[in-house]
Amino acid sequence: MGCSTAYHLATLRGCGKGITVVERDPSYRQCSSCLSAGGIRQQFSLLENIQMGLYGRDFIRKAGMYLSPSAKDVDDDDSSCAVDLQFKEYGYLFLTNTNSGARQLELSNEKQKSLGCDIELLHPNQLDDKFGSWLNVHGNNIVMGSFGKSGEGWIDPWLLLKSMKDKAIDLGVTFVHGDVVGATLAPPDNTLFTSIHVKLAKPQNFVATYNIQNVVNAAGPQASKVLDLLVGTGKDSFYPIPVRQRKRCIFYFHCTDDTSSSQYAIPPYNAPLTIDASTNVYFRPEGSPNNNTFICGVSPPSEADPDYDNYEALEIIQHELFDDIIWPVLYQYVPAFGGIKVKSSWAGFYEYNTVDQNAIIGYHPSFQNMLLINGFSGHGLMQSPAAGRAVAELIENHGKFQTLDLSIFSFDRLLPGGGSTPVREEGIV
Fold it and tell me: Among 104, 144, 106, 153, which Cα is nearest to 124's?
């Protein structure tokens, strides 16, 4: 989100001079984006989420044009510098075995198609014709599937982050390695940030002060903590950001190539990212063709989904999720997954919006010049191009959106006692 905002703002201005991004850990080892499954989709129920998905799709398809280095930085014969985000455009496949679920897919599909999405609803016989070599359609009483024929799939998350950052630097944006430790608020009402204090990483090891016009909180799962840090004791009361760290585990597994006793094959390398709508268990291929390797995951049940305060929690993988929830669903839908072995696993944090699991985009109501780009709850990677562009437009256009009207995601809907309504999205995974 920070790199996208910096890139889009520099692009709007034609230059990145005066834009500074503070990075706590430029290795991005525990960065939520890099630890994600890399999914790209437009299959949402909310108009604005679909629109952001479409911009993300087009941005990723044209990343070579948008994010490749400037000609002055590349030798004429050096084609290796062209950006390729490894977009595996193999689709998303949502499956439901209830009539109510099918109706929701139909309602969402009407909106998706009206905006130009290439998404097809498939009835059981059509699912069987298209995916029946590996998918047990009739044995699970599947009522309907929704398949992204193009524009959906997954990318290499690290390449998107690195390419956005490199292009922002190419445009003149400054990246600083350090920790934000505080801010100065203008008296008497303390609603305006005038400077940000950053403790620079070694070898500098001192606190630098940056005078600012606008500050963008793009701190992901730590958005609330960063706001608390910036405000300190300078303001007695303000509206907190309802974003918390919630852990999500991903499992990488291999499927044994022994299907002689079954009529079902192993899903091919170009199988879609497949989701059971009732449990939100998902899987997709990962790796080279014919490797028979996949990744999978699921959000924990609400009673087992606490907030976490530190990154040490990522070292503990919830293997019971795989044993008790994921594998039974995988085997139910894909009989060839009766013989699989988990080879590795990892965990990352969702920047979880505890109110409605949707984005928070716009100005903070307590501070005149703080913009928020938070709370994406697992959709951040795919929505980062559109969200970064939106915040850049707010900065450049005196608080007005230019391309997409994303005012539905403003903080106003989260204010207590204001009569606002949380945003409802049926396509939360």
Answer: 144
With CA atoms as reference, report the closest residue to 316 among 349, 365, 286: 349
Please, which residues have CB within 8 angstroms of residue 119's CB and are 6 or more apart in sequence? 42, 43, 109, 112, 113, 146, 147, 148, 149, 152
Instruction: Name the residue type at position 11.
Output: T
d(CA 267, CA 144): 19
Listed by start position, the domains of the chain span: 244-353
Written as six digits, the tokens of 387 are 């969200």
| Residue 217 · residue 238 · CB < 8 Å | no
How far apart (Å, rounded) are the C-alpha atoms in residues 374 and 362? 9
- Contacts (Cβ under 8 Å, ≥6 apart) of 294: 252, 253, 254, 255, 267, 283, 284, 285, 286
The pTM assigned to this predicted structure is 0.95
Query: CATH fold of 244-353, please?
Result: D-Amino Acid Oxidase; Chain A, domain 2 (3.30.9)
pLDDT band at 235, cuts 50/70/90? low
Task: List, in sequence order, every residue forming a beta bridge with 372; answer none if it has no partner.
Answer: 217, 362
Q: Which helix (H) or strand (E) holds 174?
A: strand 174-185
Pick the more confident residue, 81 or 149. 149
How far from each other are the two terminal CA atoms of the chain, in whole angstroms? 20
Per the structure block, which two tokens stand in for 244?
A: 């918390």
Closest by CA to 336, choosing from 297, 294, 281, is 294
Q: For the segment 293-330, what is each residue's pLDDT rounded down to a tens digit?
A: 999 999 999 999 999 999 999 999 999 999 999 999 99
Residue 284 has pLDDT above 70, yes or no: yes
Cβ–Cβ < 8 Å for 68, 81: yes
**Apex CA 122: angle with CA 120 and CA 127, to 5°?**
125
Alpha carbon 162 to chain centroid, angstroms:
15
Per the CB < 8 A criterion, the answer to whether 411 and 239 are in contact is yes
DSSP letters along 285-344, please? E-SSTTS-EEEEE-PPPGGG----SSGGGGGS--HHHIIIIIHHHHHHH-GGGGSEEEEE
